[in-house]
Design goal:
Largest interface: A-B, 25 and 33 residues
Radius of gyration of chain B: 25 Å
Oligomer: heterodimer
Strand order of the largest sheet of chain B: 6-7-8-3-9-10
Radius of gyration of chain A: 20 Å
Distance between the termini of chain B: 23 Å
Number of helices of chain A: 9
CATH superfamily of the largest domain in chain B: P-loop containing nucleotide triphosphate hydrolases
CATH architecture of the largest domain in chain B: 3-Layer(aba) Sandwich
Number of strands of chain A: 0
Number of domains of chain A: 1
Shape of chain B: globular
Strand content of chain A: under 5%
CATH architecture of chain A: Orthogonal Bundle
CATH superfamily of chain A: MetI-like
Bound molecules: adenosine-5'-diphosphate, magnesium ion
Chain lengths: 216, 377
């Protein structure tokens, strides 16, 4: 406990870096997954390819991906960009599927009546399909958030600092307080991100809270 | 005017859903496509607003080829109603109704104000506008669907089984209101249904489709009932065809004076006026029929009030269809059918046998049909 209090500044700055390394890829990954999922949902053949491809991507070991990044991107070994890009890939791997499922969950007759009323494809996407897909996409986003928080900690092994440092250092030097701080930090961060996504989802889906059966 | 000319639709899997179909839907009239499930009704309807592109043939609206128009633009000018309304679950009811005006660039405030007016027009409390569709009953959702289709005041409306998803009582109500609305608005409507009774009730013209997407008969409802073109149509029309045809045939029938008593008269007064069968017709002070009473069944010193009335028969209008006139006689406890004038006042009573005599003199079902019907090709 005293270790934690003594190193509060470090813990806070590592937490912020961790948030950044896990959160930014979450947002970028979502922005890339949306059009990808949209395309996949429209073209049946693309759909299978995208879903299988995304599943495969997620099976690449994170350390391998972190190490590969500088080679692929031409970045420095210690550049945090490596982690951001790798985490974005993981996010996409998890989220594309949710976006496809979410868009697929829009009732046929709703999508069709939008088209019949003269919604252009783009307008229909933003005005009808996407809002209705929010619950499914948000569920995927929550999984991706937790997954990101945990995978990012591996980045300590390639020298990119975040909460994972506490785990590695605490383990190597057998400092119990440091290990606890690392674990608690990751868990709390995951919970906070999860809560944030839930609140956002709630704000975006007021209709789901409207009680059923107002009148006979 | 909507014209389909030699329209064929073959789906990629080889199914021919519509086969060389030609049809004209006249302005300001309801044209109903009716037929068994899978006969190509929905496919035909969707070719009008380009939701489905025909394999061959042409579709024009007021002479303009729909295939040459921008699809979204075209659709914004065509109201579209489907089963359950197809409402957007994530928008409030009024936002749903405002959808097309908003697409067309109407300012939001104005579109919402207009949406509330439309809710009222279709018989809904505008206060429901703030709710979400899931908070409405099926019948209310269906009305919202109609309001939404009307929002941009399109001259043309396409309706795919708009009233099939609600219970029979609500359906009847929606149909009646729809007819009233159409009487005011005079839209050019193509409606699809599998329910022949609905087709006959709502259609100015009815096209009976046969599986494979071919028109078996196109005719006015009365004509269809009286002169089905072939066995398929006759079977599809179902039972009571002859009786239902009377719903479109009006003729004067002999009326008899009917002794009446007023509400509030004493039972002995009523007994004095009752016919030989003991029934007497009770009217109010404006001579509007209230029901039948049988004084012999009532306590002698009482008076004729609402509780004394037997369940009445149906009422028929003097110039109403023979079906209702006959039914008035058949459903009356005295077997004397109550006939009223245009103001609802008693005109006299009719007898079933005399109604049948009138029917005997009418055009027979074997007589040649009217010009818009044509035999199955
Ligand atoms: N997208 C499609 N692909 C293949 N066949 C279809 C498709 N849509 C409809 N059909 C077939 O076309 C025929 C007519 O369908 P439809 O127009 O929906 O009939 P209805 O509305 O009269 O029930 C049916 O045999 C149906 O199975
Ligand atoms: Mg159909």
């Amino acid at each position: 406990m005293s270790w934690i209090l003594d190193h509060l500044d470090d813990i806070v700055s590592l937490t912020l870096r961790h948030t950044w390394l896990a959160g930014v890829p979450l947002v970028i990954g979502l922005l890339i997954s949306l059009p990808l999922g949209w395309l996949a949902n429209r073209h049946r053949r693309l759909r299978g390819a995208v879903i299988v491809g995304a599943g495969l991507l997620y099976t690449i070991p994170s350390l391998a991906l972190f190490v590969l990044m500088p080679l692929l991107l031409g970045t420095g070994i210690l550049d945090p960009i490596n982690v951001v890009v790798a985490m974005t890939i993981y996010t996409i791997a998890l989220l594309v599927r949710s976006v496809v499922d979410g868009l697929g969950s829009v009732p046929d007759e709703v999508a069709r009546s939008a088209t019949a009323m003269g919604y252009t494809p783009v307008r229909r996407f933003f005005g009808v399909d996407l809002p209705l897909a929010v619950p499914v996409i948000a569920a995927g986003l929550r999984v991706a958030a937790v997954s990101n928080v945990s995978i990012v900690s591996i980045a300590s092994l390639i020298g990119v600092n975040q909460l994972g440092d506490l785990l590695v250092d605490g383990y190597n030097r057998a400092i119990g307080g440091e290990l606890v701080a690392g674990i608690l930090g990751c868990v709390l961060l995951a919970l906070v991100l999860d809560l944030a996504i839930r609140l956002l989802e709630r704000a975006l889906t007021p209709w789901r809270r409207a009680g059923q059966g107002g009148a006979a | 005017m909507i014209r389909l000319d030699g329209v064929t639709k073959q789906y990629p899997d080889g199914t021919v859903a519509v086969d060389d179909l030609s049809l004209t839907a006249p302005d300001r009239a309801i044209t109903v496509l009716v037929g068994p499930s899978g006969c190509g009704k929905t496919t035909t309807l969707r070719m009008i607003n380009r939701m489905i592109e025909p394999t061959s043939g042409s579709v024009t609206i007021d002479g303009q080829d729909v295939l040459a128009m921008d699809a979204a633009q075209l659709r914004r000018g065509i109201g579209y109603v489907i089963q359950h309304g197809g409402l957007f679950p994530h928008h409030t009811v009024e936002r749903n109704v405002a959808a097309v005006p908003l697409l067309l660039g109407t300012p939001k405030k104005q579109a919402i104000t207009r949406a509330r007016e439309l809710l009222e027009l279709v018989g809904l409390d505008p206060a429901l506008g703030r709710r979400y569709p899931s908070q409405l009953s099926g019948g209310q959702q269906q009305r919202v669907g109609v309001a939404r289709a009307l929002a941009a005041d399109p001259p043309v409306m396409l309706m795919d089984e708009p009233f099939s998803a609600v219970d029979p009582v609500v359906r009847e109500q929606l149909q009646d209101e729809f007819l009233r609305l159409q009487g005011e608005l005079g839209k050019t409507i193509v409606m699809v249904t599998h329910d022949i009774d609905e087709a006959i009730k709502l259609g100015d013209h009815v096209a009976v489709l046969q599986v494979g997407g071919r028109i078996a008969q196109l005719a006015r409802p009365a004509e269809l009932l009286a002169h089905p073109a072939d066995n398929f149509v006759a079977d599809f029309l179902g039972r009571d065809r002859g009786y239902r045809a009377l719903g479109f045939d009006s003729a004067r029938v002999p009326l008899h004076d009917e002794p009446t008593v007023s509400l509030g008269a004493t039972v002995s007064e009523a007994a004095a006026r009752a016919g030989s069968d003991g029934w007497v017709l009770v009217v109010d002070d404006r001579r509007h029929p209230q029901g039948w009473a049988r004084p012999a069944d009532l306590p002698g010193e009482g008076s004729i009030d609402e509780r004394a009335l037997a369940l009445g028969g149906t009422l028929a209008r003097v110039d109403g269809p023979l079906r209702l006139v006959l039914d008035a006689a058949l459903s009356s406890p005295s077997r004397r059918g109550v006939v009223i004038d245009g103001d609802g006042a008693l005109a006299g009573t009719c007898r079933a046998t005399e109604v049948l005599s009138v029917i005997e003199t009418r055009e027979r079902p074997s007589d040649p049909g009217d010009p818009i019907s044509h035999p199955a090709s």
